[in-house]
Amino acid sequence: MDVVNDNENHGDVIEHEPVAPQIVPALEPVLFAIKRLEEVVERETRLLLDGETIDLADINSHKSRGLRDFNKAMNKAAKTAGTPALKSLQPVLDSLRQKLDRNCEAIKLHLRAVTELTGIIRDALETQEADGTYTALQMRNGQGA
Fold this sequence. Notes:
Number of helices: 5
Largest sheet: 2 strands, antiparallel
Distance between the termini: 83 Å
Radius of gyration: 27 Å
Strand content: 5-15%
Strand order of the largest sheet: 1-2
Number of strands: 2
Number of domains: 1
Helix content: 55-70%
Low-confidence stretches: 1-21
Shape: elongated
């Protein structure tokens, strides 16, 4: 709530309710596309951080579709909405950016874990396959008997 000192009313304090930004109809498809992208990104982030099974092909498909819809809606909005209306998207885009940053960190964490696990499995297999004469790597490279 904004408080304004109106000098014409002899110092009376007038309270104004914050004005909600008016949604320009041309921006509705953009906002819808952003909301769908946020949902996909948040779902992937949650699944990665919770260690749940994740269908990366499905997630990537939804992300690609969402990005396509967003680009299509933005291109159309850029032709029909004015600059002030487009600038009003900034807080929504900032929020999406934060969610994408968090998602990127979750993906990096997941990839580090997968890389580490792959190394552990590779080392265990090489140890198991080795008979003491040649390592599994030497055998693969043709250096064995």
